[in-house]
Design brief:
single chain, about 130 residues, alpha+beta, Endonuclease, Chain A, five-stranded mixed beta sheet, 4 helices, 5 strands
Length: about 130
């Protein structure tokens, strides 16, 4: 049997599982059809109820050659290592994954989650993105 080794610590994997579970709770309660801001707020309430630390609309600085360009933000930054991008769209596209990968690169991070709450089934709307 082949064993897959995660590049993340066990603690990080547990946090990711908790965040995915938070998203499941939100989706189970609200279902698809609301604006992204509603899911964002509900997810923050769920994260806080589980004592997970996070920053909302975290400002990041994009590096371009020897310059830095301010003005970009990520939806949620959880426990100091996980970027969460929230969507409420008909379906995720490759550009959303690329967007998250760009955020991870500029923040020098390994892992992020795309959460699309407009999916009929939550499991079809959550994607783990690793850089």
């Amino acid at each position: 049997m082949l064993r897959v080794v995660s590049p993340l610590s066990e603690t990080q994997e547990q946090v990711i599982t908790q965040v995915v579970d938070c998203g499941f709770s939100v989706h189970a309660a609200l279902g698809p059809g609301f604006r992204e801001s509603i899911y964002n707020r509900a997810l923050r309430l769920e994260l806080a109820s589980r004592s997970l630390s996070f920053e909302c609309e975290k400002a990041i600085v994009v590096r371009y050659k020897e310059w830095t360009i301010p003005g970009q933000r990520v939806d949620l930054f959880v426990e100091g290592f996980l970027v969460v991008e929230i969507k409420a769209i008909p379906r995720l596209k490759s550009i959303h994954r690329k967007q998250l990968l760009s955020y991870l690169k500029t923040m020098d991070l390994r892992i992020g989650l795309l959460m699309n709450f407009n999916a009929e089934l939550y499991k079809h709307g959550v994607k783990r993105v690793v850089r």
